[in-house]
Amino acid sequence: SALRLAGGRSRCEGRVELELAGTWGTVCDDSWDLADGDVVCRQLRCGRALRVHGDAAFGRGNGTILRDEVACQGHEQHLWDCPAELEHDCSHKEDAGVLCSEHQEWRLSGGQDGCAGRVEVFFRGLWNTVCDSSWYQLEPRVLCHSLGCGEPLQHPSFNHTLPGKMFYLCESPQPSLAHCRWIYNKSALCYQSRAAGVVCSGMGP
């Protein structure tokens, strides 16, 4: 068996999908709760569940609905170790999803539009700033591309005013900053840093 999250903005957010005998299917949201989400997040090395979703919040899946009335205690190693009904009365409009704590998403704030400003990353349930101590050419380019904002034009600096600090180091082009090396709240790496910013060439929303 295998497990994945689909339809989210990172591998740690999305619709819960299980593989059985080579085909992927979904989980029904009946009695889907945080204990069930915790097991999924931990199994995927995505931390813990911040929120669980029903009603196909990440889109409707395909294939068979493989589990209904999932009843994890929260300590199980795998989702398929949890009690569940294999027969169901659900449709894909009830596909279950989860947002895990290790999910990362980004925004640019304080600029003229969504393609300029201070870089902020949502991680472990909070918005945080990014240290500019390793904010070279590649890191802003990865971010501008992942936001659909074109190429980086400038790298202004800002003050750190949010609870945590993220450090990114990209060694090659990647689909998002989460695919680069990243370290959270390690003060030595961020010593005397300012908060990274970027002005991308595209027009933001």
Automatic annotation (TrEMBL):
Keyword Disulfide bond appears in the UniProt entry: yes
Keyword rRNA-binding: no
UniProt entry keywords in alphabetical sequence: Disulfide bond
Domain SRCR: 3-101, 106-201
SMART domains (alphabetical): SR (SM00202)
Disulphide-bridged cysteine pairs: C72-C82, C170-C180
GO CC list: extracellular space; plasma membrane
Domain of life: Eukaryota
InterPro entries per the UniProt record, alphabetical: SRCR (IPR001190), SRCR-like_dom_sf (IPR036772)
GO MF annotation list: serine-type endopeptidase activity
Biological processes, Gene Ontology terms: zymogen activation
Name the record gives this protein: CD6 protein
Native organism: Semnornis frantzii
Classification lineage: Eukaryota, Metazoa, Chordata, Craniata, Vertebrata
Gene transcribed to yield this protein: Cd6
